[in-house]
Write a structure and sequence with these properties.
Helix content of chain A: over 70%
Oligomer: heterotrimer
Domain ABC transporter (chain B): 5-246
Radius of gyration of chain B: 18 Å
CATH topology of chain A: ABC transporter involved in vitamin B12 uptake, BtuC
Keywords (chain B): ATP-binding, Nucleotide-binding, Transport
Strand content of chain A: under 5%
CATH class of the domain at 82-166 and 173-199 in chain B: Alpha Beta
Radius of gyration of chain A: 19 Å
Largest sheet of chain B: 6 strands, mixed
Distance between the termini of chain A: 56 Å
Shape of chain A: globular
Strand order of the largest sheet of chain B: 6-7-8-3-9-10
GO cellular component, one term (chain B): plasma membrane
CATH topology of the domain at 82-166 and 173-199 in chain B: Rossmann fold
Organism (chain B): Pseudomonas alkylphenolica
Number of strands of chain A: 2
InterPro entries (chain B): AAA+_ATPase, ABC_AA/LPS_Transport, ABC_transporter-like_ATP-bd, P-loop_NTPase
Shape of chain B: globular
Chains: A mainly alpha (300), B alpha/beta (246), C mainly alpha (313)
CATH architecture of the domain at 82-166 and 173-199 in chain B: 3-Layer(aba) Sandwich
Number of helices of chain A: 12
CATH class of chain A: Mainly Alpha
CATH architecture of chain A: Orthogonal Bundle
Number of strands of chain B: 10
Distance between the termini of chain B: 39 Å
CATH superfamily of the domain at 82-166 and 173-199 in chain B: P-loop containing nucleotide triphosphate hydrolases
């Protein structure tokens, strides 16, 4: 194996891990509020990607400014995340007190609906808007020429979100309220926290993270039907391996899965798609509660 | 004769918080031990260690002469130590009768995937238990529809169905109204007497302790502060001050 | 007794419809196959668990039928069905031993993950599996008879009907047994189950193997009736369809799975014509509506009366 391939695989992996982390983080966030896995999170990713690409096509054409492109990407993601997140939240509220399995299936139903909506709006032809990648240019790293967008921007955005979120949850009032509500809704409500408002905020933040992942992925992957389905499974693999609710854990696991996947692409392409699943199965086999979770006994 | 339940130097700490502090304890066959203590004194922790829910960081538990330290709840139950719960643990979507029938099958340890549930026990033994816990009239009610007092009774009934050597009752009268408390205890004690089960019960109500216990152990900060007959322990000034709050 | 008569009557009606309208034969066989698989999901629902990967058992069974049929063309269709199902049972035993340690989301997604591994492997190793084109299944003999297409389909329908009746009766019997009641207890209170000295894992494992075998049976029959197996048979969307049918029919009674499957096939036939491009959208919307108004599925409509009767018996 030449060192070029090694570096290439590493850079691909890191960039991919950045996207994976954002989406998985959103999934964990939403899980914190509704205590169920939001299967429709994959749709948020897909809609984020398509939304950002559409904005780029409408307003970004003819502009050479990378700043404009980036702004369009992010605003597309936020718009999609807020709208779809609100829709999902309102839908799930109708099923609040139901069996968790049924709630899970409601998100599955929503996912099926979104999947077709996406096909109706954007068609089945691949979508690809890569202006921003070209605008940001390339760098050379140890003999390998690599896109700045994947080298710096995506991992940078993921890290920025990570640190911002850490700071937000630890140091701001709203952040602490989110932690409190996620930890124990009843106690938090008793302490005078508006659990509903905080719950909505958390849900929407999670949704925006999911669609941001899609938006950042859009310039480097072609958008086709089915990307949402792949992503929900992948991001679940990250969340499950890390342990539900583990932010730093999700970052590390996303790196693990992202890197092993990209090494597979270069070394054993047959196993590329299988790799994340294998890692998840392996992790859960050894540590059923996830890599970074501390086990707690249930009160009886 | 060896003790039925014996612990030596039983210790458990969560971080810096010591919830069981070198407990040496033994219980003979036929005793009715009341466990008293303030909330957080370590009563339930002690029970959880004995029944296998928690693993001690040091010390041993032995039951009927066998070391059961660190065994799973299931293994310990199968050796003859059953427990009831502070919050009744029932199969909410099954009927009262089905819960008892399932417990009866569990006693034999052989589940069948073909024979009907009711075939795993005799009609009479289920009826007898229903009478014993005064739930005959409600036998076809789903558990989810039972009021708290009856849930408690069924919870204990399911454990009794296992015909245990030792039954640990975690606050059998908590959540039950004051008027009902004595009624519930009467029914429980009658059931225990009938099957000659040795019992430990966690209890806050001094009247109930006086009336039904043959022995009392008082817990203070993860250790037994006093152990003896009800009269002795309840007259102990330390216990009166620290546990009973008089 | 009455329910047995009712089931037999339903079987006769289905057979009558198939003979009167020959073009309905294959849709009926397929919907009964879906019903068998959905019945497998119903077993898991009983324990409060859901799997988004059970199509893999149908897929495993289908491929075994295809491979064995290719290499031993003399084997009878019935033997192939048995072998395919056996393969799923073995796979279910192995995978089950691992996944029964998990609940709810983890249980569902692990099944999904394992099924995706299988799906990918089947698609990638072209020389062995024919890739996404799949493997053809030549029409085998049925009970020793070499049949042309039409009688073969009728024969297959009879086999599927008989197996569906047996499966319904067997699963219903299992639900009422102590093992089945313990399975239902996993849903409401696993802690208590352990404190009765019952291993919840072991109970769930048995239910899991049963559900895998039902999906396997379904896959073998599906493959034989289509004459083709493809990796699509194990794709997560297929698993999702099984779940959908199970929810539609409800977990109250084993027959629900078949009622759900017939309705589903009917819906698919008509809705696909009316709104060809938005089939998933309709399904998703129906799923949500059913969960909202009929959380216990179609059989839940009759469940209350039945429950009271069963209690008094």
């Amino acid at each position: 194996m030449s060192s070029d391939i090694l570096i290439l695989a590493m850079l691909d992996g890191i960039s991919y891990a950045g996207l994976l982390f954002l989406v998985a983080l959103g999934l964990t966030f939403i899980f914190g509020v509704v205590k169920i896995l939001n299967v429709a999170h994959g749709s948020l990713y897909a809609f984020g990607g398509y939304g950002a690409a559409s904005l780029g096509l409408w307003w970004g054409q003819g502009s050479d400014s990378a700043l404009v492109s980036v702004a369009l990407l992010i605003s597309g993601a936020i718009a999609m995340g807020v709208v779809l997140g609100t829709v999902l939240m309102l839908l799930l509220k109708k099923f609040q007190d139901r069996d968790p399995i049924l709630q899970l299936l409601v998100t599955f139903g929503a996912f099926m609906i979104f999947e077709d909506l996406q096909r109706m709006i954007w068609g089945t032809q691949p979508y690809f808007v890569a202006d921003v990648v070209n605008q940001l240019g390339t760098s050379e790293l140890m003999g390998v020429v690599y896109m700045n967008y994947q080298l710096l921007f995506v991992p940078g955005a993921a890290l920025a979100v990570y640190f911002l979120l850490k700071w937000f949850l630890n140091s701001t009032l709203a952040g602490r309220q989110i932690v409190a509500v996620t930890h124990d809704r009843e106690v938090a409500t008793a302490l005078g926290i508006n659990a509903r408002r905080i719950g909505y905020l958390t849900f929407v933040v999670g949704a925006v993270l999911g669609s941001l992942g899609g938006a950042l992925a859009s310039p480097t992957t072609s958008l086709v039907p089915g990307i949402g389905a792949d992503m929900i499974v992948l991001s679940f693999a990250v969340v499950a391996s890390a342990g539900l609710g583990q932010i730093t854990g999700a970052l590390i696991t996303a790196l693990l899965i992202g890197l092993s996947r990209s090494f597979c692409v270069y070394l054993a392409p047959e196993f590329e798609v299988v790799m994340p699943y294998l890692i998840m199965v392996l992790v859960l086999l050894i540590r059923p509660q996830g890599l970074f979770t501390v086990v707690q006994a249930r009160k009886i | 004769m060896t003790a039925l339940l014996q612990t030596t130097d039983l210790t458990l700490a969560f971080g810096g918080l010591v919830v069981a502090n070198g407990i040496n304890f033994s219980l003979e066959q036929g005793e009715r031990l009341a466990v008293i203590g303030q909330n957080g004194a370590g009563k339930t922790t002690f029970i959880n260690i004995c029944t296998g829910l928690l693993k001690p960081s040091r010390g041993t538990v032995s039951f009927a002469g066998n070391d059961i330290t660190g065994r799973s709840p299931r293994n310990i139950v199968r050796r003859g130590m059953a427990r009831s719960f502070q919050l009744p643990q029932l199969f909410l979507e099954q009927t009262v009768r089905e819960c008892l029938e399932l417990s009866a099958v569990a006693r034999g340890g052989k589940l069948s995937s073909w024979n009907p549930l009711a075939a795993g026990s005799t009609r009479q033994e289920i009826d007898r238990m229903l009478d014993l816990i005064s739930l005959r009239e409600r036998q076809h009610e789903l558990c989810i529809n039972l009021p708290e007092g009856q849930r408690k009774l069924l919870d204990v009934g399911m454990s009794l169905m296992l015909e245990p050597k030792l039954l640990i009752l975690d606050e059998p009268t908590s959540g039950v109204s004051t008027e009902e408390k004595h009624g519930v205890m009467e029914i429980l004690m009658r059931a225990l007497d009938e099957q000659q089960v040795t019992a430990i019960f966690v209890e806050h109500d001094v009247d109930i302790v006086k009336r039904y216990a043959t022995r009392v152990a008082a817990w203070i900060s993860g250790a037994i502060a006093a152990d003896g007959t009800p009269a002795q322990v309840l007259a102990n000034p330390l216990i009166q001050r620290e546990v009973l709050g008089e | 007794m009455r329910s047995l008569l009712l089931a037999l009557a339903a079987a006769v009606v289905i057979l009558g419809v198939a003979l009167t309208f020959p073009w309905l034969k294959i849709p009926l066989i397929l919907s009964l196959c879906y019903g068998l698989a959905a019945l497998g999901i119903v077993v898991l629902l009983k324990a409060g668990q859901i799997s988004f990967g059970h199509a893999m058992y149908a897929c495993i069974s289908g491929y075994v039928v295809a491979f064995v049929g290719k290499h031993y063309p003399a084997l009878d269709g019935i033997v192939l069905i048995a072998l395919g199902t056996l393969a799923s049972v073995v796979a279910g035993m192995l995978i089950g031993a691992f996944v029964v340690r998990y609940r709810e989301i983890f249980f569902g997604m692990l099944n999904l993950a394992i099924s995706m591994v299988l799906f990918t492997v089947l698609g990638k190793f072209y020389e062995l599996t024919g890739g996404t084109d799949g493997v053809r299944i030549n029409r085998p003999t049925l009970f020793g008879f070499e049949l042309t297409r039409d009688p073969y389909e009728i024969g297959l329908l009879l086999v599927v009907l008989a197996l569906s009746l047996i499966a319904t009766f067997g699963v219903q019997r299992y639900f009422r047994s102590s093992g089945g009641q313990a399975l239902a207890a996993i849903k409401t209170n696993e802690t208590r189950l352990e404190y009765l000295g019952i291993s919840a894992k072991k109970v769930l494992w048995k239910g899991y193997v049963l559900s895998a075998s039902l999906c396997g049976l379904s896959g073998a029959l599906f493959g034989l009736s289509q004459g083709l197996v493809t990796p699509e048979m194990g794709y997560w969307l297929r698993s999702g369809e099984f779940v959908f049918i199970a929810i539609l029919g409800g977990a109250g009674h084993a027959v629900g799975a078949f009622v759900g499957a017939l309705l589903y096939e009917f819906l698919k036939m008509y809705a696909a014509v009316l709104v060809s491009g938005s089939w998933q959208l309709i399904l998703g919307a129906i799923l949500i509506v059913i969960i909202y108004f009929l959380p216990k599925g179609l059989t839940g409509l009759f469940g209350k009366r039945k429950g009271a009767e069963g209690g008094a018996a």
